[in-house]
Amino acid sequence: xxxxxxxxxxxxxxxxxxxxxxxxxxxxxxxxxxxxxxxxxxxxxxxxxxxxxxxxxxxxxxxxxxxxxxxxxxxxxxxxxxxxxxxxxxxxxxxxxxxxxxxxxxxxxxxxxxxxxxxxxxxxxxxxxxxxxxxxxxxxxxxxxxxxxxxxxxxxxxxxxxxx
Length: 164
Known about the structure:
Number of helices: 3
Largest sheet: 6 strands, mixed
Radius of gyration: 34 Å
Number of strands: 6
Order of helices and strands: HHEEEEEEH
């Protein structure tokens, strides 16, 4: 019983044997070249399939990072102290005397931040984290913002004039 490996080995031996006819050696060389060509073709097909799978995975990763972590929930500042973090799927990691300082949401860790005292938009507390965007730059994601309710500000002169 001869196997494919035995056949290929005998073809190689035939090429190396000086007694074998030139025609037989040439024929065996063409057989070996055809086999190498077929193997390379199969390898190229597998590499193309792998590249396609990698592209799909990278695309999925890029879109899932953006979509998964853009909830940007809103709540009033008065809700901060007693906020039910599990209601948005977040887990409290640490807190201090003023309230929660770090939470985990979908494998990301968000830290407490606050607005400046002189902030025009009013007092606010939010939870954010840094991540890399698809372009490689750092992007900050906001989980939730606690902001005081402010009154509606009147329109200023230029806008009022355009409305008249």
